[in-house]
Design goal:
alpha+beta; single chain; 701 residues
Length: 701
């Protein structure tokens, strides 16, 4: 059951529910009273059975394999029978507190496709300097029902290995043994952590249906956390109760005896339970399911011991967060230094530049064209900027922070800016949750205008960002003014113009030419494709559209290396005509037809998140094939989307010699709420149907 864990998490609280208090029963005859009392007790027993799942690791019996009484999607590859976690605090020997997180998870494998659920990974954090969370008491077993008896196969501890993600995170990975269709797999473990800011979050949903998901957190009054929730927040149980607990904290005095303090504290005991949670399934045009999973997490706000104790703020505001980031040696520590080691090389780089913008363009082009990015995302550096400069390569953050440092070295107003890519999830506009960000770019301030630069991508022009950066807010890290700019996909207006000309030649062929001028994002994507697979890969789709009777020649791509200009793709083609046929059928949309509706489901729970707004025009001019006459022509049509927010035009006309066609697909937005899904689906249904219509020619007699 591989868990997707590329981000820092917080953790969760849950509330305890005992059911309604019984009402007083008036005096009645003994038999009636006894009957009512028994009914009441049975009802309370039934209620308790619903509100508490009695489950222990290793306690599996044959009845647990029978899921006929449960209702869930029968097409599922696996089903989570139970996922139960709890977190509490305990005093430690370092004069502080330790978070203790415990988890028990049980899953039944239904089909071979569910074998992925048997591959697990557990995230553990470290401070990058040797201290890390401790994973203990890990137990994992597979249970199979053989001849009516439960057979257990335990995980060998030697089969657990560590996958270091970076210096702050590692994954403990293992695969359950002896898994087959019908198996039940079960795991239990404890994580002890001295990093109170990493109180474990909880996902109530996953890629499989979940019968029972429960999380409980007990937080003493010394710690204040902010609750952060998303997705469906309807719970089977959601309760909170206040209790008290005694904590023992120790300080080591070296050779002397330890100092010990016993702290009595009020505790908030919170518990959430969800039952029969549907699987979370990916859908077309969904940036990441992490934005929509039913989830709850915590962010440490402040710590304070006693009403008169000093309050230590963790969360704060963006001014405090910017100050910390700019002082962090792995982020902004080197940005304010003199960095004289740049001087000699920059003289040649900046030769001829007179203005700040001219200098910024030269610096940006120098880094983009001469430094190699590893592609690793994140906001912190692993190497000093001087080492990155000498090695001519590094992570996205290292290259773009180096860009900021060089610009500042030349007295250009530049700041680092944080964002979260579309695949990483949304950020919070309310709180400075640094863990929600995974990408660093450079922000150049020119008057009232901010220009964002990403020198880690060799295919980006000055002032351009990859499409995956358009995910909401960008936070510019500036100690005096950490300002916010929104970058939504709606603001990306992708325009594309394609023209096709088809004429008769002297043979049994239709000869044609096609030229497409791409938009900014498609130009970037095409340059990436050419860099990875070569120019021939660009024309493979055109060949497939023409079919076996077509051929290409004179293929070309213009402005491939002129990164500030749109790419133009052009080619000539020949389309063979079978003159033995009485009827000739040709689809006039010969370039990039929309053949399939991406929105097939009857309903959708998530918003539609396209990569950009679109404005695509296709023009065809075609001679009628020799020896044929026009038999049937698609009708012109015009359909509006939400009155003025989009349009699809299909305009066709003809004369005795040829046919002219113009289609126009325009959608002014990239984001559509779930309640707009039906309208969008119907719009695309019409477009697909219309673009599939063919021109019919009849052989002259």
């Amino acid at each position: 059951m591989a868990i997707n864990v590329p981000e820092i998490r917080s953790y969760i609280r849950i509330f305890h529910y005992f059911g309604p208090t019984p009402k007083l029963i008036p005096y009645m005859k003994c038999k009636t009273f006894a009957f009512c009392l028994i009914s009441l007790l049975l009802g309370q027993i039934h209620l308790l059975a619903q509100d508490k799942l009695d489950i222990k690791f290793g306690k599996i019996n044959p009845a647990d394999f029978d899921l006929s009484k449960h209702s869930f999607d029968s097409s599922s590859a696996a089903v989570v029978l139970a996922d139960i976690g709890n977190t509490y605090f305990e005093g430690n020997g370092n004069g502080s507190f330790t978070l203790v997180f415990k988890r028990l998870r049980r899953v039944k494998i239904l089909t071979k496709a569910g074998f992925e659920a048997a591959q697990d990974e557990i995230l553990v954090y470290s401070n990058g300097a040797g201290r890390e969370e401790q994973l203990t008491d890990l137990k994992a077993s597979t249970y199979n029902l053989e001849n009516g008896q439960v057979q257990e196969t335990k995980l060998d501890g030697k089969s657990i290995f560590t996958d270091k993600q970076d210096r702050y995170m590692a994954l403990k990975k293992f695969t359950f043994p002896a898994v087959k269709e019908g198996s039940i797999i079960e795991e239990s473990y404890t994580i002890r952590s001295d990093f109170r800011q990493y109180l474990r979050a909880w996902n109530f949903q996953c890629e499989y249906p979940t019968l029972w998901s429960e999380y409980e957190v007990k937080i003493p009054e010394f710690f204040n956390y902010v609750f952060l929730t998303q997705g469906d927040q309807n719970y089977h149980i959601k309760t909170v109760k206040n209790t008290a607990d005694l904590y023992t904290v120790r300080w080591s005095n070296g050779t002397s005896s330890d100092d010990v303090e016993h702290l009595q504290a009020n505790v908030q005991d919170s518990r959430w339970v969800k039952k029969d949670v549907p699987a979370l399934r990916d859908e077309e045009y969904c940036t990441t399911l992490k934005n929509h999973v039913a989830r709850i997490e915590f962010q440490l706000n402040f710590t304070q011991y006693g009403e008169t104790g000093e309050r230590h703020v963790w969360l704060g505001d963006w001014f405090m967060a910017s100050d910390k980031l700019l002082k962090d040696e792995d982020f902004g520590g080197a940005l304010g230094e003199d960095n004289r080691w740049m001087n000699q090389e920059l003289q040649a780089v900046l030769a001829g530049a007179q203005t700040d913008e001219g200098k910024a363009q030269k610096i940006y082009g120098y880094l983009r064209d001469n430094f190699t990015s590893s592609g690793q995302m994140g906001i912190y550096t692993d190497h000093p900027l001087k080492a990155v400069f000498k090695s001519r390569g590094g992570s996205v953050a290292e290259i773009n922070l180096l860009l900021v440092a060089i610009c500042r070295h030349e007295n250009i107003a530049a700041d680092p800016a944080l964002l979260s890519t579309r695949g990483h999830g949304y950020t919070s506009e309310t709180y400075p949750l640094i863990s929600r960000f995974n990408y660093v770019v450079c922000a150049i301030k020119q008057g009232e205008k901010t220009i964002f630069l990403d020198a880690s991508d060799p295919n980006l022009g000055f002032g351009c960002l990859p499409g995956y950066c358009y995910n909401g807010q960008v936070r510019v890290i500036n100690i005096s003014n950490p300002y916010l700019i929104h970058l939504y996909a709606d603001s990306l207006k992708e325009r594309k113009m394609t023209s096709v000309v088809i004429v008769n030649d002297d043979k049994e062929f239709l000869a044609g030419s096609c030229q497409s001028t791409l938009g900014n994002i498609e130009s970037i994507n095409l340059r990436d494709l050419v860099r990875a697979k070569g120019e021939k890969s660009v024309f493979q789709r055109a060949m497939s559209e023409l079919g076996a009777d077509g051929s290409l020649e004179n293929e070309g791509i213009d402005s491939l290396s002129k990164l500030e200009y749109p790419v133009k793709v052009h080619f000539d083609f020949n389309l063979k005509v079978d003159t033995d046929q009485d009827m000739l059928y040709i689809n006039p949309i010969l370039a990039d037809p929309i053949k399939d509706n991406p929105f097939k489901a009857a309903q959708r729970l998530f918003p539609v998140e396209m990569p950009y707004a679109q404005d695509f025009i296709y023009v065809l001019s075609m001679e009628i094939p020799k020896g044929y006459e026009l038999e049937e022509l698609p009708k012109s049509a015009r359909v509006a989307f939400n009155n003025t927010e989009g349009i699809f035009e299909y305009l066709v006309q003809h004369d005795e010699n040829g046919i002219q066609l113009r289609t126009h697909l325009r959608l002014d937005r990239a984001f559509y709420a779930p309640d707009e899904y039906g309208t969008l689906r119907d719009f695309y249904t019409y477009v697909v149907k219309k673009e599939a219509e063919q021109i019919v020619f009849k052989k002259k007699k």
